[in-house]
Every structure is written in C-alpha cells, then in structure tokens.
Amino acid sequence: MLKVHHLERSRSMRILWLLEELGVGYELIGYQRHPVTIRAPETLKAIHPLGKAPVIEDNGLVITESGAIIEYLVDAYGDGRLAPARGDPEHARYLEWLHYAEGSAMLPIMVTLLGAWTGGLPDGLKGFIAPEVELVLDYLSKAVGADGYLLKSGFSAADIQMSYVVGSARMGGLLQGRPDLLAYLERLELRPAYRKSVEIGGPPYAMDQL
C-alpha cells in the first residue's frame, strides 16, 4: 500500500488532501515536530536523506518534494482528475502553477514569517522581501479573481499545492485588504476532502500565531 510520511503542521497535509480528493487508500505514518526547534525529527532521515516531509513510498519508489509527489500521484492515480490532460494547452499552465508555489511564491512569504517568528528581519532584507510578497499576492489575486481557481477549467491539484502558500500568508497577516485571496482560501477549505485531511493529519501550518 502507498505510504505517506506526514509531519504535523507541515506541507505534507497537501498530500493527504490530494489522496482524499482522489479516493486513494494509503498508510499514514505520522511524525511530531521537536518542541523547541520546531524541526522534523531525525527519524525521517531513515526514510529520505533530507529528513523532511512529505515523503511517499510507492512500488519501491521513495519520493520527496510536494510538487513532485503531487505530479506523480495525479499521473499514477488520477485517471484524468485534478489536472488537464497532457497535450491540452492548459496543462502547461497547470505545471507552471504547481511548481510556482514552492519554486518562487513561497520564499518571500516564508522569509517574512520566519522574520516575525525570530524577532524581525534586518531592514535591508525586509526592504527587499516586502515588494516580493506583494508581487506574489497580486499575481495570485489576479489569477483567482473573486470566485475562481488558478485554472480557467476549475479546481485542480495546483490549487492544493498553492493552498499552503496562501494559508501561510493569511497566518502571517499578509492578506489584509485582499478579499479575493481570503475567499479563494475559504473555497478550498470548504472542500470535504480538505476537511477530511485535517481530521486525519491535523492543521497544515507550523505556527498558530506570530
């Protein structure tokens, strides 16, 4: 059976959500964060040298990185669901959003959150990062509009991947004055599969308050 190595309050909740959307059975192997460092336990390194989650095991494969896992699972188990078909012009946009989430979008938001968590960013770094955060959020807001998703064809696995970015921004108070993104996140969190994944794996965010 497919195994999912899931770290509490982490990106790996997205993999549980995806599998619930697809109705795929899996074995959940849970891990707790260190109470002081908030990092993943060393035991995860026995599964993958990076020692990070999510990690899946399937048919002898061990795969890490959310985008790679999502792409693999949709190809292996999706049966045409949650992604445009290869050859469809929208498939390229789907891949762009899927990898933009962690490739570019998450960095300025995560740096901002870590700054708040550790006592504040240096002025020079803050001056560089703040416009990057606004660039990401402007881009996402324009894409989803008042009532849509990242793709014109509707909800896809790219939205699952992007949810952690937008949710982290909300947690850090970065969505003030951005009703489109707040409404987008609410649409995602109302999905039954999302709610089921939270019941199983807990909330997705590493820090409740900053």
CATH topology of the largest domain: Glutathione S-transferase Yfyf (Class Pi), Chain A, domain 2
Mean pLDDT: 94
Tally the beta strands: 4
Oligomer: single chain
| Estimated share of beta-strand residues | 5-15%
Order of strands in the sheet with the most strands? 2-1-3-4
Number of helices: 7
Radius of gyration based on Cα positions: 17 Å
Name given to the CATH architecture of the largest domain: Up-down Bundle
Distance between the termini: 38 Å
Please provide the ordered H/E string of secondary-structure elements. EHEEEHHHHHH
CATH C-level name of the largest domain: Mainly Alpha
Unreliable runs: none
Query: Can you give the helix content as a percent range?
Result: 40-55%
Tell me, briefly, the overall form: globular
| Helix/strand/pairing category | alpha+beta
- In the residues, how many domains can be counted? 2
